[in-house]
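Input protein
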Amino acid sequence: MLGSVDRSPPESFESFCSSRFHALTLQIYAFTGDLGEVQDLVQEAFCRAYARWSTVQHYENPVAWVRRVAWNLATSRWRRLRTAASFLQGQRVQHVAAPSADRVDLTWALKRLPEAQRRIFVLFHVADLPLQEIAEQEQVALGTVKSTLSRARAAVAPMLSEQQEGSSRV
């Protein structure tokens, strides 16, 4: 039994650890398959045994206690890795199609507009908001929205026709 008390003379922790570390490492390695990780797990199990050595040394089978601790640590590690892998699987990059040439040209042209014109142009043509709602959102008069939109369209049109003719974007 793991926790039953043995009445034999106590063994020093150093001799206990040095005589059993290799065998426990091999046993847990057979379970996990990762020698570097297993060495850490078994060392952690022995550290926990050391912290409780005054009690653990009197168990009927202290090796079984350390083995169980190492086994539990390996199981916990496996669960954490499985949870992390599951989370990461949901975080994969979604590949989307490249933007069309027209969209690239429009984005290029919009970047050259003053901010107020670009904002009103996008709100009207992309967000599909009515002129009155744009005026309310931007806190400007309806006539200002109309004239700004008109200037934005007038500025964008020649830039888009230049792009369609194949001229440089520089």
